[in-house]
């Protein structure tokens, strides 16, 4: 990507604070107090909008308009899509050029999760993108892991890392990343718990990445590839057959083949559902078109995710709030979604039991001004 034009002293529009809690409707429990796990969050996409502006100012780089006035929902559905998203993500990633900027992203992501009531964050990173600025892919990953451990201690949120290969690169690069991930495999804060495959799922041949996933699996890492968002059931079949996923990043298009969906549910494959992302990428017209109720009704294990809050201006808490409003979910149903996110996480059983107990406390608490909402 060519360098962005340099500027001095620009005036940027005010940037939103994405952790501002949505209003709690009358007689409902506060979602911020509901313990939940965030399992689908990309590294650069986790950046705060104000941090993006700060980095641009520090480097005297002019940001493209589509990064400063981001509201894809004002763009007609047929004008949304992957190209618009990818050019924005690349422009943001271009600003992450130092150890401090990488640490800041992890630190602030953990703080934001804590502010929204998350107890677990599994953040996904491809260290290749940041390697040129910090001395290679190994230092890049170590920076993220080190800050994840520090942020966990500081915020109380368990922050672990998923190393993700890109479909846009050669499968041999994925093998290199899988070997690197294997060196740092573990199950505690600041360790690598899984191996993913991200970027445009229409690119590359899924089966070509199976060797990389084999390396990761032998090291005890969970397989966490994307699939079933930009493409439909046939793509999901290929991902499942070739990569044997523990969870499926997105997976919403599996709803177009109920027999396949039921097979995945029976196999125990969880779905990382990111409704706002689906809408902003033009997969669905609006939040109400996302097949969340169908997945819930079939018995799928679902972990709501925000994907890339920097670009979509919507974090995890808002996914729960929108699901409550759009699909008329009860507090009990929302608690069950939070419970499923923890079940789908790669946290220890002791941590899960502790968080389940806190969810039960939330469920048992009295909703302001009314009996329990069912």
Automatic annotation (TrEMBL):
Q: What class of enzyme is it?
A: hydrolase
Task: List the Pfam families hit by this protein, alphabetically.
Answer: A_deaminase
Q: Which PROSITE patterns does the annotation name?
A: A_DEAMINASE (PS00485)
**GO MF annotation, one:** deaminase activity
Q: What cofactor requirement does the entry state? A: Zn(2+)
| Keywords of the record | Hydrolase, Metal-binding, Zinc
Q: Where is this region: Disordered?
A: 1-25
Report the EC number(s), separated by commas if there are several.
3.5.4.4
Coiled-coil stretches noted in the UniProt entry, renumbered to this chain: none
User: Which family does this protein fall into?
Assistant: Belongs to the metallo-dependent hydrolases superfamily. Adenosine and AMP deaminases family.
| Name of this chain's protein | Adenosine deaminase
User: What organism is listed for this UniProt entry?
Assistant: Schaalia cardiffensis F0333
